[in-house]
Fold each of these.
Amino acid sequence: MKVKMLSRNPDNYVRETKLDLQRVPRNYDPTLHPFEVPREYVRALNATKLERVFAKPFLASLDGHRDGVNCLAKHPKSLGTVLSGACDGEVRIWNLTKRNCIRTIQAHEGFVRGICTRFCGSSFFTVGDDKTVKQWKMEGPGIGEEEEPLHTILGKTVYTGIDHHWKEGIFATCGQQVDIWDEQKTSPICSMTWGYDSISSVKFNPIETFLLGSCASDRNIVLYDMRQATPLKKVILDMRTNTICWNPMEAFIFTAANEDYNLYTFDMRALDTPVMVHMDHVSAVLDVDYSPTGKEFVSASFDKSIRIFPVDKSRSREVYHTKRMQHVICVKWTSDSKYIMCGSDEMNIRLWKANASEKLGVLTSREKAAKDYNEKLKEKFRYHPHIKRIARHRHLPKPIYSQIQEQRVMKEARRRKEVNRLKHSKPGSVPMVSEKKKHVVAVVK
Amino acid sequence: METAPKPGRDIPPKKNKLQNKKKRPQRYWEEEITPTTATASAEPPPNKKRNGEPRPQKPKNTHTPKKSRISKKPQFLKKPRGQRNAEPPRSVSGAQDPFPGPAPVSVEVAQKFRRIDKSKKLPHSKSKTRSRLEVAEAEEEEISVKAARSELLLAEEPGFLEGEEGEDTAKIRQADIVEAVDIASAAKHFDLNLRQFGPYRLNYSQTGRHLAFGGRRGHVAALDWVTKKLMCEINVMEAVRDIRFLHSEALLAVAQNRWLHIYDNQGIELHCIRRCDRVTRLEFLPFHFLLATSSETGFLTYLDVSVGKIVAALNARAGRLDVMTQNPYNAVIHLGHSNGTVSLWSPAMKEPLAKILCHRGGVRAVAVDSTGTCMATSGLDHQLKIFDLRGKFQPLSARTLPQGAGHLAFSQRGLLAAGMGDVVNIWAGQGKASPPSLEKPYLTHRLSGHVHGLQFCPFEDVLGVGHSGGITSMLVPGAAEPNFDGLESNPYRSRKQRQEWEVKALLEKVPAELICLDPRALAEVDVVSLEQAKKERIERLGYDPESKAPFQPKPKLKGRSSTASLVKRKRKVMDEEHRDKVRQSLEQQPQKQEKAAKPVGARPSALDRFVR
C-alpha cells in the first residue's frame, strides 16, 4: 500500500512575524474561481457607479477680468501659464498652479480679438479692435520700466484673429483678408482673399506647417497653402463656421465649430462629406480645441456648456456646466491633455479636469493597478444596459434639457416627413440624403 | 571532466542507470493511459520534467508519476518575440542555458484556462468589430498560456492511495491508512461518540477549517476541527434538521423543528426567521449570499443573508422537499422529488429551469460536482446514477447498489461518496474533471451507526460523516484540491484577512437574478434583443441603414461605357448574387428536413431525452 495524504506545513502559509506581509498563495484554476463573469459584471457595475460618484471635474475659477473673456492662449513651454484677452482690451497672464494672475496689460482699446504665443514661448501677439497687431514680451517689465509692446503694427482694417506659425517667425492674421506676416516686417508678406466677407478665424496646421485654414461669415471654410499666392479650396456649409481647429496628430483632419449647433470633422482631401458630424449642443458652437493626443476635442457653446467629443463619435462623452457659467466663448485643452480651460461671458476662466473622475496626484502602484483593472472591466461590460445607463447619465441644467427634448421632437418630425415623402413617391425619385451630406452645400477649388 | 549537461542528450543514460540499479515498482496509473482527460492537477507540476538536470531532488518527488510525464509530451513552446534559434546562444563562460526559452506549456493545461470557444466562428460583422474580436481572442490565448505556465508555482500535490499488485484499495481500512500517514494527517481521523443526541448533520465552512454539527435531539456544536478547539456547544431543545455555515465561520444557520434560526460562533441566537418554517434542508450560495431552504410544505425559499430579505419563495408543487443540493458551478438548486424527478431551480424563475426524470422510485439523494458537469442521484429503486449536466442531461453510468444510497457527496477532485446504511463507499474517477467510475469502489468504511450526513472537507483529504453514533472524520487520500487560492478561501487566513475578504465579498455580491444554467451567458451577445432593436430601427427609419446599396457600375473609359455594356455588367453582378442566395438556401434545406423528421411519430415522451 502506498499512501500520501495532503498535509500542509502551516509555516509555509502563515507569516513568521507580525512585521511580515501576509502570505497569499494563488491558484488560477477556473474551478476555484466560479462565477467569473457575474462577479466581473458586479465589479464593473460598482466601478461605473464609483466613477459617477467621483466625477467632480471643476477645479478652479480664475477671476479678475473686468469684462467677458474673449480669447485664450496656452504657453508652449510652460504648462502652468495661460494667457487671456478680454472684451475691454485687457490681457492677463495667469499662473495655474497658484491660480492667480501674475500680469495684467491694457493691450488694446476695445476687444482683444485674438491672442497667440510664439512657438518658443518668449513673446506673444495680440490683435484688437483698434486695428493694431502688438507683440509683447512674455516676461514682465523690470522695476521702473513701463509696460510697452515690443512691436506695434497699425493696420487698415480690423483684425479678428491671429495665429502663429509652429516653427518659423511667421504669423497670420485675419479680418477682411488673410494676411501672412514676417515678424521682422511691418507689411504682410502676402494677403489672400476669396470673396468679400469678414474672416473670423485663421489657424496654422501644426504638422504640415505651411497649411492654413480659415472660416468666414459667408458660411465657408477656406484652406490656404502659404507657398502659393492663392487659396487652395473651400467648402460651403449650411451655416457660418465660427472657428476651426486642426488635429495635432493627423495632418489632414480638422474640426469646424458651426452656428447650426453641430461640429464637423473634415478630411481636407475630401471636403464634400465630413468624416463625422458631432451633434449634442443646443446652441451655436463658438470654439473648439483638440486634445494633444488627437483622439478627442472640446467644444464651447453659446448654450453655457462645454462638451468633450471623441473624434470618431457623433455624440459627446462629457458635458460640463455650472450654475454661474454663461456663454462660453473660448476653450483650450492643456498640453498635458489633463485639463480644460474655458473663458466665458461672465469674466471668469474656469479650469476643468478632462477626465471627470480622475484622481489627481501621484498614484501608488496598487491604485494604478486597481484603476487599470476597473477601466478594463468598464470597457468589457460597457454595452450592458444597466451599466450603459449609469455611465451615460449626466445631470443637465433645465434650459439645456428642455432644449434637447424640443430639438429631438423637431428632428423626429422632420425625419418622419422625409420618410413619408419617400414612401409616397416613385421609387428613386426622392433621394435619401445622409446626415453627413446634408450640411455641405458645395466644394469649390 | 564533464561538460555542462545538455538537455535531451543526458536523460537516456540516467534512465538506464536507474533501471539497472533497481526495478521500478509498477504504479497503478501506468496501466491505463487516458490522453483525453489528463489534466494538470492529476499530473505533477511540470517542474520535475527535466530529470537530467543537476537539481536536488526532494524526497517528495520520488512518487512522481512517470507516465503522465509522457502524456505531457505534446508541448508547444510559446515564441512571443520573433524566432528562437534551435541552438541556445552560449554565454561568455561557455556555459549553456539548460532551459532555453520560456517554460513549455502543455496544450491541455492551457485549454483549461480558455474562456473563448474557438470552435465557434466569428460573427459576420463589420471589419472594425471583427478585428477587435480577433485581438481579444489573441490576447485571451496569450493569457491562458501565461496562466498555465503559472501552474509551475503551485506548491502542493494531491494525495493518493494505491494498493500493491492485485490489492484492492477498497480493502484498505482506515486504521491502516492512519498508521501509514504522518502524524499531522493521522490526527485528522477522529470519531466523536455522541450516541445520546441521535443522528447528526454536519457542515464544513467554506475554508474547510471549521466544522458544525447538529443532532436530531437538539445538540448543536461548532469547532475548529484542525486544532479541535470548540467554538460553541448548545442544546436548542428542539429537533435539528440541518445545519449550515453562512459565508464565514462566524454565522451558523440551523433548521430547527419549527423555524430557521441563526446563531453566531458563540452560540448566541441572532435571528429566528419565522418566514422559513419546517425547513428540512439548507444550502448556502456563497457568492450570492443566499440561503436556500426547502421545507416540508413544499416551498423553496431564498433568503438573502446580507440584507435579511427573502428574495424568492417558490412553490415546487411536489409535496415535501427533503432532497436538495446546489450546483457550485452555476448556483442552481437541485431538488429531488418523490416521483423520481430532479428539478433545477433559480430564484429568478417561478418554474423549474429543467426537470430530469432520474429514477423509477423517489429520489433519495442528489449531489453535483464542483465543475458542474456531473450530477449523482440515488433513488428508492436502489440505483445510483451519474448524469452529464452539460447539454441534455444524459445518464453517463448507473449501478444498482444492494441497499441504495441515502446520502451522496462529491469532493473537490471529483470523488463520490455514498452513505448506505452504516457503510460509506467512495468511488474515484480517472482525473479531476472526469466522472467517477462506479465499477469498483476506491474506499469503503463501516461506521458505528447509520449515516445521516456526508460532506468532504474543502482543501483537506477528509470526509466528514454524521451518523447516529456521532461524527466520524475519515481519511480519503486524493479527495481535495491541494492548492487553494488565498484570495478566495484561505484556511490559514488571519482575522484581519477574513474581515477584508468579507468586505470584498459583500461588495461583489452577485445579484440573485443572474442565476441561470450557464453563468457565462452574461458575457455573450444577446442576439434576440439585438435583432429586435435592429428591426425596430428599420421600422423607425423606413429603410435599412446597413443594407448594401444596389450595385451601380462605374463608368469606364471613353467608348467602353455604352448603355448595353453597363446593363450587362449590372446583370452579371445581380446573377451572381442570386446564385449565392440559391446556394445558401440549398445548403440550409437538408438541415431543415432533418429537424422536421424527428418529431414524426407518437407523442414525445419524457424518456426521449435518454435516446442517444
Note: The longest helix of chain A spans residues 398-423.
Amino acid sequence: MALLRGVLTISRQGQTNRVSFVHEVVCVRQQHSHVDSSDSQYDRLYPGHIPTNPIQKVLLAVGSGVAALQNPYRHDMVAVLGETTGHQALTALRDRMKGDPEGCTVLTERPRIRLSTLDLSKMASLPDKSFGREYLRFLEENRVTPDSRADVKFVDNEELAYVMQRYREVHDLLHTLLGMPTNLLGEVAVKWFEAVQTGLPMCFLGAVLGPLRLSSSRLGPLVTSLGPWAVRNGRQARCVLSIFYERRWEQSLENLRQELNIEPPPLTVMATIQKAPSQS
Amino acid sequence: MKFRFNMAASIRFLVRRMVRDYSRNINCSVSCQIVRSSCPLNLSACRCFSDNAENKTTHFGFETVPEGEKTERVYKVFESVAQKYDLMNDAMSLGVHRLWKDMLLHVMNPQPGMRLLDVAGGTGDISFRFLDYVRSQEERVARRVAQANQTPSWQEISTSYAAPGQEEVEPRRSRAIVCDINKEMLKVGQQKADRMGLTSGLSWVVGNAEELPFDDDQFDVYTVAFGIRNVTHIDLALQEAFRVLKPGGRFICLEFSKVANPLLSQLYNAYSFQVIPVLGEVIAGDWKSYQYLVESIRKFPDQETFKGMIEDAGFFSVRYHNLTGGVVAIHSGFKL
C-alpha cells in the first residue's frame, strides 16, 4: 500500500483560489504484506486480520496501553488498545448503525475514505462553507491525510472490524464538523465528543489523559466551554458513524450540523501548525 | 579437492543461469545430467536448480511456500525487525540470550590469531564477543610476558644478547568477519560497532550462507548463531561451512532446539505462542515476523537429527550441549 503524502499548496490569484495538489508517493514498506499473500494458516476474516485468543488480547491491551502512555506518538499502539478493549462498544455502535437507515446503507456498502477514493479536484471546486470544501481546507491547514489510519488487526468479527475502521476514518471528518484543529486542545475536545458518542474505552482513556498534558491556559477554556459543549453534543447528536459522508460533500456545513444536531463551536481554536502532529 | 569444488561452483553458476534464461520447464533429468556428469560429488546441488524449483515447497513457519519464495520472505522479516532486533532479543529472553552467547564463546575458547567467520551474524553479537575474548587473552599473555620480563631467566638474557638486530615477530592479528544476507541487519551491526568503538579486526560482508563469497580453507572457526534455521537449504549451508574452514577448523552452531522435559516444553510453547508475538507487536509493531520466528523454531530439526546433518556434511567429532533445558543447543564439529 502506498502512503500518499499529499502536499497541498494554495496560491491566491486575486479573487480565485487555485489549489494545486502535489502528490508525493512514498512507498512505505507494508509490514504485513509479505505474509498476506498466503492465508492458509490463519482463519483470517478480513485482510490484515490476526486472530488472537483472550490471553493474548489482555496482554496486548496492557502492553499497548503502557507503550501508548510512554510514547503518545505511537499511533499503532493507540489503535491496538482501541481494538482489544472495544468489543462491547463496537457491538453497541453497530447496533445503533443498524437502527438508522443511512447507517444500514453504510454497513452494506462499506465505503472507505482514502485519497484514492476522493475526487479532490471536484471537492476543491465546491463552494466555500460546503462540507467537502471545508474538509479539504482542514486537511491542508493541518497537513494531514486520510491515508495515515492504521488497518484493523485484532477485532475478531468482520463487521465490527469495519465499524472500527470507519470510526478511524471518520475522525478527521469529525474535526471538520466540530471545527477543531489537530493541536492538543482540538484533539482532546474531539476525544470527549467521541467518548460520549461511541463509548470506546480508548476514547475515554484519551479524554482523561489528554488534559493532563495541556497547559493551564488551555485547560481553562476546555473545562469551562469546550468540554461541556463537546459532551453535550456527543449526547444529543445523531450517531456520526451512520452518516454516508461520501454522498454529502456538496451539502453546506451548517446544514449538515443542523441535521446531525451539532452546535457550532463556542470558541475558535486556532490551528497552530508548529505544534504536535495529528493524534488519532 | 579444491579444484573440483571450484569447478563445481562455476558450473553450478553456469547451469543456474541457463535454466533461468530459458523456459523454466527444462526437463529435470537433463539439467541433472549436465550436473552429474561434471561433478559427481555435488548430487545434492541438483535440487536447487531443477525445474521443480517452483514446485518444490518448504516451510516458512507453519506455512508451506515454494522454495524460491522462502529466501525473499525471510529477508523481508529481518529487514523489518532489524532496528529493534537487539531490544526484542532482550525482551523475549529476559536477557538470557546474552548468557547463551557467552556460553558459545566459552565453548569456542578462541586464541589470539584465530580467524572467525560469523555467518548470519547480523547485528554482530558473536563477533564482538569474539574480539573482546581474544583481546583479553592477548592482554593476559602480554601481562604474563611483562611479569616474566621483570625477573628474566638466564635463557631469556642469553637470547637477547644473541640476536640484537632481529625483528620482533608480529603476532598474527585475530579477525572476525560478519557475513549476513541482509543489509539492514549488517547496517545495525555496523552502527553498534561504531558506538562500541570496535573497528580493527572486524569486517562486514553481504553473503548467502548457501553460497559463501570466500575461498576454501580460510577460517579457523565458523559460527552461526540463531541463523541456520532461516536458511532454505540447511545442508548446503553446512557444506559451505565445511568448504571455507581450514583443516582443523571448528564449526559451532548456536540454535533453538527441542526441549525434552514435557512440562518445560508446554510452558515454553505457551510462552512462545502467546507472549512473543504480543511483545513483537507492542515493541516492534510487527506481530507476524515474530509469529514466523517462533514457528520456525518448531520446524527446525531436533538435536540428534541436526547432529546427523552436520556429520553428513563431513564434520567429525560432532557434539552438542543443551542450554536452558534444551531451549537452545550448541552443536560443534571439526573439519579434519
Note: Residues 158-178 of chain A form the longest helix (21 residues).
Amino acid sequence: MYSISMWKVGRGRKKKGRGMTGKGELLHPGKDLSVLLTSLFLCSPADCAIKAMVKHEQEESPNRPDNTAFTQQRLPAWQPILSAGIVIPGFVLIGLAFIGVGVGLFITSRDVQVLELDYTGAVATDPCYKCSDPSIKDCKCTMEFHLDTLFRGPVFIYYGLTNYFQNQRKYGISKDDNQLYGDLDTFKSPASECFPYDYDSKSKPIVPCGALANSMFNDTFKLYRMVNGSKKEVPLNGKGIAWWTDQNVKYRNPSGTPLINAFNGTVKPINWPKAAYELDTTDVYNNGFLNQDFLVWMRRAALPDFRKLYRRITKDEYQAGLPVGNYSLEISYNYHVLSFKGKKKLVLSNVSWMGGKNDFLGIAYLVVGSLCVFMSIVMLIVYAKFKFPEED
Amino acid sequence: MSGVEPVCTKLYFQNVLLPYLKMFTDFLSFMVLFNFIIPVSMYVTVEMQKFLGSFFITWDKDFFDPEIKEGALVNTSDLNEELGQVEYIFTDKTGTLTQNNMEFIECCIDGFQYRHREDSSELDGVCVTDGPVNKVQQKAGTEREELFLRALCLCHTVQVKESTKNGRDQIDQVDGLGADEEVLHPPQKERGFIASSPDEIALVQGAMRYGFTFLGLESKNMKILNRNKDVETYELLHVLNFDPVRRRMSVMVRSKTGDILLFCKGADSSIFPRVRQEEVERIRMHVERNATDGYRTLCVAYKHLSAEEYANADAGLREAKLALQDREEKLMDVYNQVETEMTLIGATAVEDQLQDEAAQTMEALQVAGMKVWVLTGDKMETAKSTCYACGLFKKNTELLELTLRTLEDGGRRREERLHDLLLEYHKKAVQDAPPVKLGITRSWSVASHGFGFIIDGASLSMVLSSSSESNSSLYKNLFLQICQNCTAVLCCRMAPLQKAQIVRLVKNSKGSPITLSIGDGANDVSMILEAHVGIGIKGKEGRQAVKNSDYAIPKLKHLKKLLLAHGHLYYVRIAHLVQYFFYKNLCFILPQFLYQFFCGFSQQPLYDAAYLTMYNICFTSMPILAYSLLEQHICIEVLLDNSTLYREIAKNAMLRWKLFLYWTALGLFHGLVFFFGVRFLFSNPALQDNGQVFGNWSYGTIVFTVLVFTVTLKLALVTQHWTWINHFVIWGSLAFYVFFSFFWGGIIWPFLSHQRLYFVFANMLSSVSAWLVIILLILLSLLPEILLVVLRKPRGPHARQKKQVQSNVGGPQSSARPLLMRTFSDESNTVI
C-alpha cells in the first residue's frame, strides 16, 4: 500500500517539476525514472550494464563518482539460500555421516587393548611400596600380571604420571633451546631461563640445563614373560618413540667425537644418575640430546595427567603381540612422585588408526550425529506445521 | 652480630616480602596473558571500517548532482553509524526544504482560474505572450484580467536590475530590427528583479507571463508594458508598506488619465474583511484550495480613490510619517482607514518551489520514525505553508500554535497566557494522546493525524528563559513533551542561536536521542555544530554550512538515501562488527583462561606467541572488516522503498543488552566447547597411529585451529551478502591460517629462542583424531546457532518478509530468507 502511494506522489511531483527545470536538467526526471526502474527490478550484473549505458548518455564531469559496481555497492552478490529443502536433508546427511563415523570410532576404540599398572607404591600392599622411600637408592621392584587374551601387537608401552604439571610455565621454559641445538657456546653459559639449574654449586655449567631436563623421568622397565617358570625377557624397542622431526631437526648433538668431548667442562643435571652422553649404553647414536627418552620427556605434556611413550614391542615373536600368559615387570624405581601426591603407572596399549584408546571421540560423534538428525526432525515438524513459509 | 643481620634480612625477604612480590608479578603475568580479551585491535578495525566506509558515501553516484557537478562530501568518518540512529531531524526551511525560488503557479481573477500551462517551458526563452490567454478558457472579462495584471505589476516594491551592457546592446539591436513579438523576448529573459521578498518577484514575473511587464520605476513613475506592447506609466504616490501584523501592502498610483488607484495585496485573512463581501466567496474557494496545495496565496484588491479621498489619505500619511511619537501606530491607523471598501479582483498562488522530492523525502523520514522539526528564520505563514507543501503538516494535522499572536489573544499577560497554553497543549498532545510505547512501531497512517506544533522565536525565548526558575524548567519540560508527541514541529522566526538552543534542548532530553541538523546557510551553522550529525546542503548560500558539517550533500532528497540506506547499513555493520569482536576475543581467551586450571595457574599460554599476536591481526580481522564494509543484509533498494525498516534499528536496537548477552553466551559456549572438547581428547594424548603422544603446543594448536575456523565460519553464517570480496577474504583467511601454520612450524627460526611450534601443525594434521575432533567441534559450535533459528522461526512475524516481497518483485535478492542465514541480524529485527 505504502509504496504504491509513494509512487503516485512521486509521479505527481515529477510532472510539476518538469516545467521548472532548466535545459541541462531536462534529462533528469527521465534518468531518475529509468534508474529507479532498473534498480527496482534488477539487482544483478546485468543492471550494472544497463546503468552504465544510461550513464554514458550524460556528459562526464570530473567530480562524478566512478560508476563501478564496487563504489556503488552493487557488486554482484550471492545470498546463500538455505531453504528447508536443503537444510533438512543436509542435516540428516551430516547426522548420519557423524553417526557412521561415531560407530566406527567407538568400535575402534573399544577394540584397543589397554593394560594399566600403577606402581607408585603408595600403599603398603603394593609391590613397589618399599621403593617409594626417596632415601633408598637403586631400588628395584617387580609387578606380575596375567594376560588372558593375546595382546595384539604392535604393543606400545607408556609411562603415565598423574598430578604432574609438566605444563607449568616457568618449568616449561627452563631450558636452553640453543644448547639443545648443539650450540657449544651455550654449554659454557646456559640461558638464564635455566636458573637455578644453570650452574651447579661449583659454578660449572649444567648441560642440558634447566628444570625440564633435570626432572627427566628415569625409571626403567624390563618386561619378562614367564615361560615354564623361567623368565624370558621381552625385547623392548626404544626407537621411534619420539617425533621424527625432534630427533632429526629440532635437537642436535654438539659436534665432537666421541660425544663426551663436547661435554668437557660441564656437569650433568643434578638429578641425573648418568650424564647426557651416556644415557644409552647400547646405542652410541641414542645419546646426548638425541636420546629418544630425553626427546619424549622434553616434549611437554598438555595436562597434568599424562602418559608418554616409553617403548614399543616390535621384535621377534612379539611382533604379533604379547601372547597369553604371565608376565613380570621389573621396575628400577628412581623417580619419586609421592612428595607431590603424584602417581606413576605403566600402560601397555596397542593403537589403531585413531591412536590410543579414546572413547570420547566416538561418543561425541554419536551424540552430535544424533543431535543433527534430531534437529532435522524438529525442523521438519516446524516446517510442516508452518507450511514452509519460506517457499511460496 | 654482624653475621646475623644479613641472614635476618634475607629471611625476612623470603618469608614476608617474597609472597607479595610473587603475587604482584603473577598479577602482571595474568594481565599479559588475558589482555587479549579487551580487543585493542577492534579500535583499529572500527576506525578502518569507518574511514573506508565513508568512501562509499563519497562514491555514491546517487548523491551526485549534475547541476553543481558535485557529489556528497564526508567531513568526518566517525558518524556513519549515527546516520542509522537519527531520531530528530532539524531542518532549515529556506534553501533546504525549499529552493528559495518562488514561482507563480496560478491566479484567479473574478473567481475564474487561470492556470499557467506547463508544456511551454518559458525557461527556454520561448515566452508565452501568445500562449496563456489563448489557452485559458475565456472566463473573466478582459478588463478585469488587465486590471488584475496591472495590479500585480504595480503593487510591489520590486526594482528592476539593469541588464548588462552587452545585453542592452543586444536589445537595442533587436529593437532596431523591429518590435516583432519574438525578438522582444530577449529583454524579458534578461530582466532581473530585486525585491525584499521572492514572492513579489514571482508575482511580477507571473504578470509578465501573462503579458504585462514591469519595466521599472523612474522618478516616481512606474512603467509597465501591456499586452499591446504599449508602455503605460503610473505615478507612484504612496507605498503602504508590508508588515507582518497587517499582512498586506498597498500602493497608490495615479494613472495617465488621472485616476487614483489603490492596489492592495495581502493574505486572505487580512484582505477579505476589507472588501465588498459579495465577491469574496467566489475567490475564497480558490484561495483555500491553493492553500491546501501548499501554495502561498495572496489576494489582490483595488479601489478607486476620489480626489477628495486621496487628499485625505495623503494628508494623513504625510502627517503620520512626520510624527515624532507613535509613528508606526499612526501610520497603521491611516493605512487601515485607506484600505477599506476595496474591490476584490483576484488571488494569486505562488509556490515556494520545494527542493526536488522534498515531500517524498520528508514523508519517508517520518515513516522511518524520525521526527522532523523545521527551524526557520522565516515568518510563520511562509513556513507553515512550506510544512504543508512538503507534507510535514497534513490536512488533518491539528496545529498547536504558541506564537506571539496566540499569546496576545487572550488580552492577558503573556506569561500567564503562555502558562495556560502550554498546559492546554500538553493536555491535548501528551495526556490525552493514546499511549504510545516507545520503540513500538507506529504505523504511518496513525502518525498522519497527529499534532503539529508551531512556536516562534519570541515565544521560545519566553519558554526557555522564564522569569522564575521553577517555571522555566517546568515550561521546558512541557515544551519538550509536547514537541516530542507531535509529528512535526515548526519553529519560525528563529535566530541562529535559538536554533542551536532547540537542538541542545532535544539533544539533552531524556534518552539523549540522536539529532541531525540539516541546513545550507551560515545561519544554520550553529545548529549543525550542535547536533550529533550535522549535514550541510551544498546550496547557493555559500559554503559555510558545508564546511561546518559532518556530511554535505547537494540536495535535500539525498538525505533519504544517506539515512535510510547508508545509515541503516552502517549501523548494522558496526553493530555486528563490535559484537563479533567481543565474541571472537572471548572464545579466543576463554580456553586460555580455562587452561590455567590445568597448569597450576602458572600463566602458561595455551597458544603460541605467534598465534596470540596474529589472531586479531591476520587470521580473523579481514573477514569482519570486509563484512562491515560490504554487508547488505537488506538490499539498498528495499531499504529505500520501505522506510519502516529504519524503525527496526531505532534506539540502538542492535546493541542492546539482550544481544550483547547473546554474543557473550555464544563466545562462552564456543570457548568451553573448544577447550573441553580438546581436553577430553587429550585424556589420552597418544593421538597418532604410531603411538606417539602430543604435547601442550599440539593441544593449543588444535584449539586454535578449531577457534579460527569456527569464528570465521560463524561470520560466514552471519554474512548475507556474499560478494567475491567476502569469498576471497573468508576463504583466504582460512587458507592463510593453514599456510602460515605450515610455514611457521616448518622452519627452525634462528631468531627464536624456543622452537615451540616446530612441526606441531604438520604433526597435528597427520593425526586422524585431530582432524575428527576439529570437524566435530566446529560443527558442534555452530549447531546451536541453527537450532536457535529454527526454534525462533514460528514466533517471528512474516510481515517483514511480505513487505520485501512486495517491493522486491523479481529481484534476485528475493525475500526468501534462507533459514541458515536468518541469524543474528534477523533475531534483532523480529524480537523488537
Note: Residues 118-138, 164-189, 437-448, 793-832 of chain B have pLDDT under 50 and may be disordered.
